[in-house]
Design brief:
mainly beta; 108 residues; Thrombin, subunit H; 6 strands
């Protein structure tokens, strides 16, 4: 797929560990490089959490192969905007390191 066929602008979010001032550490997510891809909805379900019903959705992001995309990172949807996506798994569908299929879930 050529780059011009991707419809969504995404930032790769990178976790940075910082001191919380009380002897512990916390994770802060910072924006990393921008990429283009297609964000495709896969499924949605409702879940009861703390007495409230939440909708949880899963997505697949199709993009060019990029070794910076790993399961330890997230995507921030820049244009069009949307929910932040936690990366669950990364696949190289043709085994040639040209394209990637990235399974994601909404960050709740």
């Amino acid at each position: 797929m050529s780059a011009g066929q991707y419809r969504h602008s995404l930032a790769i979010r990178i976790p940075v560990t910082t001191d919380d001032g009380e002897g512990g550490q916390s994770i802060v997510w910072t924006d990393g490089p921008q990429i283009w891809g297609n964000v495709l909805p896969i499924s949605a379900r409702e879940q009861s959490l703390a007495g409230a019903v939440q909708t949880l959705a899963s997505y697949r992001v199709e993009t060019h192969y990029d070794s910076r995309i790993t399961g330890e990172r997230r995507f921030k949807r820049l244009a069009p905007t949307g929910p932040e996506l936690q990366i669950l798994g990364v696949r190289d569908p043709d085994g040639k390191q040209r394209l990637m299929d990235v399974d994601c879930a909404e960050v709740v």
